[in-house]
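Blackboard transcription, Thursday session:
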Amino acid sequence: MWRDYDKAGLDPILEAALQVFAAKGYHGTTIRELAAAAGLSVAGLYHHYASKQDILFALVTSVMTDLLERVEGALEDSPPDVGSRFARVVECMLHFHLFQREAAFVASTELRSLEGSHRQEYVAMRDRVQAAIETQIVAGLDAGEFSTPFPHEAARAVATLCVGVASWYQPDGEHSPAEVTRRHLELARRLVM
Amino acid sequence: MWRDYDKAGLDPILEAALQVFAAKGYHGTTIRELAAAAGLSVAGLYHHYASKQDILFALVTSVMTDLLERVEGALEDSPPDVGSRFARVVECMLHFHLFQREAAFVASTELRSLEGSHRQEYVAMRDRVQAAIETQIVAGLDAGEFSTPFPHEAARAVATLCVGVASWYQPDGEHSPAEVTRRHLELARRLVM
DNA sequence: CGGCCGACCGATCGATCGATCGGTTTTGTC
DNA sequence: GACAAAACCGATCGATCGATCGGTCGGCCG
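(Written on the board underneath:)
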């Protein structure tokens, strides 16, 4: 389910890499740190992945695939009205960036560290998420429920707002995830109204 | 003046470092690349800066100081009404992230690469910018012109919106800087209305 | 039991890293 | 034009980088 964040769902090696990448960044992380975090020797790590770049690519691909499936799932079981559908997508995005904070953070900040075609593949997945938001906004305009003169910029702003959550949210912070979601859902609504 | 982006204003060495950092990131950049970009030998580069970390810190400090002075300047010669003052700050932020795109991008993304107290000093400057936005929002609430129930979150959202511009804007893109500014000023207004 | 394969490791590779050395050239001042 | 200071450089340092090597181990299949 798109609201379920209990199960692991990530290769233990990638889960370990995620923690180190989140703390030090891709280029700031050494193969030896990745191996140690995974509880393996350097050679043992290379048995599972061909290179450091391979680890990053497998990680962000796994994370973005998870996000895409959740966004699609959030739309599938949504009430048919545009207001609900827009809220579902935004709520899904907020939940993901709250509950998979480090994964979402690494995926969004290490775009620059992806080499060659890997970067384009990532951007394509990123664009699909943003397109899902824009689709709901345009549908809302057609239905007369939204009135933003700039649906494309509004969609990017909503996405930026949600992605940004992963940059500042702290689990022990002032507000609960539910409250953060409520407030930013309201901010997103104002962007498209 | 806070709208003037003609003059250089940056140490040539830092200007060269800016280009390389923007393209490859701090940890992805070598001292030799920095020296080559500055037209110096490695030893010649070390005559001006004590370390690679020193170069990054001098760069982001210079950039953030510039931004802070512009924000203050934008408020100083503003009409006294809250609507104008809010618009001034947001316009100043948007211009900075449009016309100093690479500098703003590096300053915002390489926060993680700052070591020790340098990071805290940067965060303090960053918070001062966001506080300037929040101050205008609160003033607008007091004056009855704004109505957002979450001024703190709205201020962060406005800042995120402006900073994000540096991540996607391309000078040869579809819209002119003036048009980008106009549209995002409208989005910012909706966030606080 | 014998053979094999995936999982894993210690040791080490060549390359490159950030940084430093002693020494040379350029520049500004009187 | 003497001279000190600033600017700059070739050569090289020890450390560490990503990656690879030959080999060990344990469990599964016949």
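Lecturer's comment: Residues 117-142 of chain A form the longest helix (26 residues).
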